[in-house]
Amino acid sequence: MGAYVTWTLEVLAFATFVVLAVLMPYARRKRDYWTNRGVPVAAGYRSLTNMLPGFRLHDRSLSRHRDDAKAAGATALGLFDGGRPTALACDLRVAAAALGNDGFTEAETTGGRETSLVPSAVDACAAIAVLPTMTVCVAELVTSLEAVANRRLTISPWTEVKNCATTVVATCVYGQPMVDSRIKTFAEQCDKALSDGGRGRPTITDYFASYDLSSDGRASSTDFKQIFRAAARCSDQIDADVADKQVRLDMFKFVTGTIEQTAALVTGVLYELANNQSIQNHLREHLDSELDEHQQQVTIDQLDRLPYLENVLKETLRKYPLVTVVCRMTTKSYVVPGTSGNGTIEPNTLIVVPVHALHHDAEHFSEPENFQPHRFPGQMSSAYMPYGSGSQSYIGKHFVELEAKLIVAMLVSRYEVHLDKDNPCTSPDSLDPRSFAGVRVTVVNRSGVREARMYTSLRQLHNDVVKNASDRKFLFF
């Protein structure tokens, strides 16, 4: 028995020695990785736990790390993401270099992955082509809120806009009006794909795998499957099977990348307008100069003549960017500015541009936590990148921005929105997409508000007259 115990202890001691012999060089190599390259390391990233493959870098921590780097005068900071060396761009010079094409590439395309066709296919012209389709769906949304507004009820903008955006996207993908049952099926498939961090991807991929991509000869400018197919034919993907696969993948990216982002953008706008009544009133006056309160059709020319609406959307995207982080990969050694040539980021290293942190930096945007649409275009900065940057920037940016602009224009021109003071809602947080679903606003019909204000004004006038008459011992009423 004693011999067995001794043998067991010897085995454990040998195993411990082997583990330490392997682990210590790994820990030493990781610990000294950034310092050996002349790049400062973020506070707390010298411990082994932060360098292990299971430890992931969280977007919320990037602002804190960047603030620490700025205080120390560092332009870049060394981090680890899942055990992988990752550089944080803390200065606009580093961010601009990373977003350029010289020495950097899209992180998603490394390893031969195909570049999506969507950014080039769904351009501003393609988005404008579907404006009539958008207008019909948005008009239905606005009309459906009439009863809600008359009773001054509270709604979830996220839910209402998401349903509207689903109908718009489905109509554009199929290139024809959708019946309710088909919309419901489409929405269920999208929800599965979007749920739980995208683990439903095979579901939506299979859904489009059985979808007929052939043209029936009636293709229109709103038929996005034909837009994607045309982009595939113009690319280097000659093989028909490869082109079809790319089209299906792009359709998946377009669908899952526009519905919830449209809902998030509009929700952010309505929350800020409800929280800033003076801004809302100014926007409404701005809208009244171009739109009729009950207008059912809005043209692109009218939207182009609404610069303050554009500023409201820009400020919302600054405060709640749709892309909070942009990742790039170095293709050659990059010398970090401000290190006297001693700081180097080696090839095949991930570099992170903290978009959210840049948007909330007083150096680039004064009073960054305040919602100030008038800061544009005067405070426009190269730090502003709400959709990301490069060929892999946010895939549906033109589509989402146009739809959001249309929804806000038609809603605010017809209704007023207020926060429910008795039941405070969750404020949106772009670092937590789920927070947008917790926003609640009260919708009020403008005609009802005008009548209430007129009644209040008349009562005040009556009281003033009575008071004046009483003072003179003479009553008019």
TrEMBL record:
Keywords: Endoplasmic reticulum, Heme, Iron, Membrane, Metal-binding, Microsome, Monooxygenase, Oxidoreductase, Transmembrane, Transmembrane helix. The chain crosses the membrane at residues 6-27. The keyword Endoplasmic reticulum applies. It is a peripheral membrane protein. GO terms for molecular function: heme binding; iron ion binding; monooxygenase activity; oxidoreductase activity, acting on paired donors, with incorporation or reduction of molecular oxygen. It comes from the Eukaryota. InterPro entries: Cyt_P450, Cyt_P450_E_grp-IV, Cyt_P450_sf, Insect_CytP450_Detox. It is found in: Endoplasmic reticulum membrane; Microsome membrane. Its main location: endoplasmic reticulum. The keyword Methyltransferase does not apply. Its cofactor is heme. Pfam families: p450. GO terms for cellular component: endoplasmic reticulum membrane. Belongs to the cytochrome P450 family. May be involved in the metabolism of insect hormones and in the breakdown of synthetic insecticides. This is Cytochrome P450 6a8. It comes from Melanaphis sacchari.
